[in-house]
Amino acid sequence: MPFGLLKYGLSKEYPARRQFPASSEMKDRYDVVIIGGGGHGLAAAYYLAKVHGITDVAVLEKGWLASGNTARNTAIVRSNYLTPEGVHFYDESVKLFEDLSNEFDFNILYSKRGHLTLAHTDAALRTARWRAEVNKHLGVRSRLIYPDEIAEICPQLNMSRDVRLPILGALYHEPGAIARHDGVAWGYARGAFERGVHIHQQTEVTGIETDNGKVSAVQTNRGRIKCGQVIQAVAGMSSEVARLAGFKLPIRSIPLQACVSEPVKRFLDPIVVSGSLHVYVSQSSRGELVMGGSVDPYTLYQARSTLDFKEGLMGHLLELFPFLSQMKVLRQWGGVADMTPDFAPVMGETPVKNYWIDAGWGTWGFKATPVCGKRMAETVASGKVPELLQPFALDRFDRFEQLGEKGAASVGH
Amino acid sequence: MNEHRLPEPYGLHLDRTRPLSCTFEGVRVQGYAGDTLMSALLSTGQHLVSRSFKYHRPRGPITMAGLDANTYVQNGTEPNALADRILLAEGLVANAQNVSGSLKGDRDRWIQHVSKFLPVGFYYKAFYKPKGIWGFWEKIIRAKAGLGKVDQSTPHSYHDKAYLFADVTVIGGGPAGLSAALEAAEAGCEVVLVDDQPLLGGSLNSGRDSETGGGDKRVTEGERLRKALAEQPKVTILTDARCTGWFSDNWLSIVCGRRLYKLRAGQVVLATGALEQPMVFRNNDLPGIMTGTAVQRCLRLWAVKPGRRAIVATCNAQGYAAALDLADAGTEVAAIVDLNPEPYDCPERRAAQARGLRILPGHTVWEARADGSKNRLGSATLRGLNAAGEADGAEERIECDVLAVSIGFTPLAQLLCHAGGRLIYNEALAGLKVDHVPEGAFVAGAVNGAYDLDTVLAEGRHAGWAAAQAAGFKDRKSPGKPQKTAERVNHPWPIFPHPEGKDFVDIDEDQTVADIHNAIADGFEHLELMKRYTTVGMGPSQGRTSALNAVRITARANGGSPAGYTVTTQRPPFVPESFGHLAGRAFDPERLTAMHERHLELGAQMMPAGLWWRPGYYGPERERAEAIRAEAEAVRRNVGLIDVSTLGGIDVRGPDAREFMQRLYTFNYLKQPVGKSRYLLLCEETGTISDDGVGCCFADDHFYVTATTGGADGVYRSMLRWNAEWNLDVDIANVTAAYAGVNIAGPNSRKVLETLESDLDFSAEGFPYLAVREGTLEGIPVRAMRVGFVGELGFELHCPAGQGEALWDLLMKAGAAQGIRPFGVEAQRLLRLEKGHIIIGQDTDGLTTPDEASMAWAVGRKKPFFLGQRAILVREREGTDRKLTGFTLPMRAPLPEECNLVIRDGEIAGRVTSASQAVGVEAIIGLAYVHPKDAEPGTTFKIKLSNGSMVEATAAAIPFYDPENKRQEL
Questions:
Q1: B453 to chain A, minimum CA–CA distance in Å?
Q2: Is residue A200 helix, strand or coil?
Q3: A-chain residues within 8 Å CB-CB of B122?
Q4: Counted domains in chain B
Q5: Interface pTM, i.e. ipTM
């Protein structure tokens, strides 16, 4: 029995510790307004308060806290990206993640599992080697492995060559991990609110006012709030909110679905991804398989569930794990992914002064939560975009300066 | 017959002529055909069937409808199988799951005694100090988590799929569903009726007839409706089938046996009924405690007597009916506890009174206690209720082994919620009510809040009629809308928190009233947040038995009324569906060329290329390197034949064909002569190379365009998309599958062709380099192109796919004298590398511009427009930090692998995209992205090999082989 639980067993009254504030009065002005109470927005609020001492901050969430893509993602953390910019960025995120439980005093169940990206074709093998080589060069533990070693790391996989797409190799990324996604947002929320940040749930932004090209206020369903600066962190609705601020984003919003199985006893440790088969799967600490595939083939703002998603996913999953045909799907859901042309996010300045954007997270936003929050906070506090974020500037698209993350992002999550 | 098994007519589902036996937990269990594993166990007096998720508490069935997770067992290799849905079969072997040791003596049952140390969300609150310790605790927690076991030797079981269509689909075969189906059928609709029981009838089969007249109305109505439906030719009935999802546009998934039906319905009538809800009190999870309807199902469907001595806790007629049924079956009813201050007035209550059953109004069950075995209900402590509904009155303990709870229902409207419907807490009904019904959907019966049989039947008829109307069958007269609809059967607060806890709200997840209160104290006030923190509603029954009470408790703890609360979002599937059902036969489409069999006969090692299979090389795997080399040498020195059928083929025809080509591709096509081919390079709007190929101009208004194997479908889609914008007068047809193709290449290729009967002149003058012709070859119509991809004299011949094999045979036979050799993709890759031809996707990536790929020559500079032009110009102006260059290494140097990095001053400057030992020249040759300064031939740069060591390469001009291109122009 760990020490931390003793007080619960021994105290007469449950020793509650509020994770979120009870609904609080909304002031008519804040130094910083963060639109979006998901992981990213809450993390930015947390680091603003903790690192920069900026606590006159309001986080506005239109639904309940972390109810958007934070609640819907499949919680994979990794840094095996393809571009040096991406690797540096996500590597910082992984390092922050590793410390979060202790920093929050709240267990986010960060579980290092190892991450296998299977290659079934020559082309996939090439990309895997490319990522491995870039990662190794930058000090990130990834390597290309072949069937013998794959079978050792994940003996459950069907390594038969007598299938439609035999496994030829894999990118193995040892630091690959999963975490309790909600817990990450809750931890940030508590850290922010205990330092004085206001968190307003059921508060929807309906308009954004500017003055001389500078953001001056946001309008909400609960009234108008004047503000010095704004961070927009509303994955799934980024283009719509940016439109309120008067600028366009090069983003297409596409549904992404996932599902979980019923809980079973532990049998799978690594996170397994197959781009060619459009499958990824991991087993949560509760025993459920958490599974998904690639984005839906159309743009849509509605996160609806479909039957063909499950049919396709299971067809492919059973190729990798033929013994799972009697496992059952417990629940499926969808989210909306904001896809940019180069499959890399957008962070930093916008055409509106003091209005900072955090968008374009496609299918991989969760794993960036800590680093993005931390660096966005730094951006707001200093008024300057840190070097780490500069490659992700919005205006790169005007200059056709793209980041080539397609190879590492699709299905990778 | 044992003391738990009742005589006929009890046991509608049973065939007593067929006794069966199975094994549960190593013990033989006797039953009959028609029994479920659970009913067979009950017939031996055993309720205990599982242990709970967190505390390993003993559990028995609650609903007997396959809707609670208490009946989860390991059924052979199948984990988490519902014992109240597993049909008894001879030889069936099932076991309890999530137990340490045996079900009866689970060693992990101690965990419940330290529950105070495992508060709500306990895993968030500890196990992380000191840093890094979680890995240790996680192993322990993971070992305890999960229910059933996956058997990794389970074979991939057979499942299939079928499509169904219906004007009207009715989900649920109870009184409402049967009436709806009959009404819709009589209106002329094609109807599919889906029911999850083996025998249609629902509560007609398991319910008790009203005490006031009508006699055996349920039985006669059931028989009448079943018979009438069986006579309807346009009705399809699926029994033992569970509808699991209701997707957009009335697309339903139905699991039935080993089949998944996918049903497209015009209109859907939901008549799924309602599920009786548990009551919350201490130890409300002991085996023997079940809902009143579950008791009735036990009696009427399976002829099992759930116990010897019963208490019934109720607030409605349903509870009194269950009490009467128990008494009829010979179970002693020790007390009927009525939560209402005045006993609920209904004919059933009066009948109970008349029989002398003891009725305790204004009372509740305060606590249940286990018997000596610790695994079964032994007694219940009752308490009087005060005016506020709190249990603070006098206590009485009564021995009993079964406790039937009938304190209210929740509509089984999960499917409706998938389709956009909504459930909202209605204060007048003290329960959840269907609040919004989407278009194309109808609800009838208990799911709509109706419980009185006549009302239910009338609602069903009306819904069936309305659905038929909506489906366009308008001739029938309305059967009339029932006046009375929803009636109150729920108690508003059947929740009696106990100071010592174990008052479970979510039985799947072992979450109690205090757990919800504590979660709210921790700040999780919103129902959705509370759910995520406590996991209430996240277990296998997905809130079916917990959502209602969770809403009430949360609302009250938040200081408000539950009115207006919705339940947490209902997501598909309604009940868990197996991966096997979803996967079906799980076949992957694959495409085979016309010559596929020939390649196999020749010993080819096939490799996937998109959906296609292509020969990699010919010969055994152990001779791979030699085979590739020999094939390449055959092309260089003699003649080789490769199947190129997988290349995309697209016909662009029409007056604007030239203009279309001009806009789409980077090169110039306006003046391309008829009878000539020209290289094609396709870019995205971002200026990134996306595909290449050859454009053959067969006529002013006809281009035959090739595309890469993997890119063909994308190119075709992109053509359609752009022409939708440009609106040019062209027809675009993807003829990839219509043509088979070969490339015959090598210095002797012409000789081979010239031995064949043809109207084509293959001579150097008659068929110059880059010419294209249409003609016949031994009667086979061909599109012939003189190309030079591999850098030798060569002809590509495309013919109708049906004649592909004949063309292959013809050329192999004609070439036999020359020693023609088939060659595969691997040799082709090597040969093209020697010529410095890039492969899109290998030598380019998601960002490569023509300039970076050293393909600027293929970009028309004077064109007013082409796809990607603006971006290409901007990106050229901004400059690039990489360039694709050829490079060489000495023949004996280590061979770099594709994607080894090019390092410059410690930084990544680029990567190797292709590398191979050449056959045409004596060196290792390759292509690599390098810093533009290092691209100049003769410059050296460093390649980091996979093992981390560095090797120095020298930039070289391409082509490596035959730089003057003399050989391909022979």
A1: 33
A2: strand
A3: 5, 8
A4: 6
A5: 0.96
Residue B249 touches chain A, beta carbons under 8 Å: no
Read off the tokens for B245. 């999802």
Contact B946 A129 (CB under 8 A): yes
Does any CB of chain B come closer than 8 Å to the CB of residue A71? yes
Residues A258 and A402 in one domain: no
Same structural domain, A333 and A228: no
| Counted domains in chain A | 3
Cβ–Cβ < 8 Å for B243, B574? yes
Q: Which helix (H) or strand (E) holds B115?
A: none
Judge if B451 and B519 occupy the same domain: no
The answer as to whether A133 is a domain residue is yes
Q: Are residues A261 and A317 in the same domain?
A: yes
Same-domain check for residues A288 and A326: yes
Tell whether B349 and B437 lie within a shared domain.
no
Residue that terminates a domain, selected from B129, B155, B181: B155
**B874 in helix, strand or coil?**
helix
Render pLDDT for A206-235 as a digit per residue (tens, 0 to 9): 999 999 999 999 999 999 999 999 999 999
Q: Is residue A130 part of a domain?
A: yes
Domain housing B117:
1-155
The verdict on residue B614 lying in a domain is: no
CB contact under 8 A, A99 and B526: no
pLDDT bucket at A23, cuts 50 / 70 / 90: confident
Q: Do A101 and B845 touch (CB under 8 A)?
A: no
Assess whether A316 and A348 both reside in one domain: no
CB-CB under 8 Å, A262 with B79: yes
- pTM, entire model: 0.94
Residues 108-127 on A with a CB inside 8 Å of B are: 108-112, 120-123, 126-127
Sort out which chain A residues have CB atoms less than 8 A from B78's CB and list them: 326
Among A107, A165, A314, whose Cβ lies nearest the Cβ of B124? A107
The answer to whether residue B605 is domain-embedded is no
Domain enclosing residue A314, as ranges: 252-269+278-339
Task: Give the CA distances from residue A236 to residues A180, A239, A337, B872, in Å, rounded to whole numbers and listed in that order.
Answer: 20, 8, 5, 31
Residues B2 and B148 reside in one and the same domain: yes
C-alpha closest to that of B55 among B506, B518, B521: B506
Q: How many CA atoms lie within 13 A of A333 on its CB side?
A: 18
Distance from CA of B116 to the nearest CA of A (A): 5
Size of interface A-B (CB pairs under 8 A): 294
Burial of B454 (0-12, 13-18, 19+ CB in 10 A): middle
Q: What is the DSSP letter of B38?
A: H
B 408-467 residues with CB < 8 A to A: 418
| B17 contacts: CB under 8 Å, gap ≥ 6 | none
Whether residues A404 and B845 touch (CB distance < 8 A) is answered with yes
Q: So what's the pLDDT on residue B599?
A: 98
Q: Are residues A258 and A329 in the same domain?
A: yes
Establish if B217 belongs to a structural domain. yes
Please say whether the beta carbons of B496 and B549 come within 8 A.
Answer: no
Closest CA of chain A from B144, distance in Å: 8
B870 and B939 in a single domain? The answer is yes
Distance of residue A122 Cα from the nearest chain B Cα, in angstroms: 9
Same-domain check for residues B284 and B209: no
Interface of B with A in 881-920 (CB under 8 A): 897-901, 903, 908, 911
Half-sphere exposure of B122 (CA within 13 A, CB side): 23
**Does residue B728 sit in the same domain as residue B809?**
yes
pLDDT in tens, B270-325: 999 999 999 999 999 999 999 999 999 999 999 999 999 999 999 999 999 999 99
The answer to whether the CB atoms of B146 and A287 lie below 8 A apart is yes
Q: Show the CA angle centred on residue B542, arms to residues B448 and B502, nearest 5°.
A: 105
Which CATH number fits the domain that encloses residue A378? 3.50.50.60
Of the candidates B119, B123, B150, which has its C-beta nearest A264's C-beta? Answer: B150
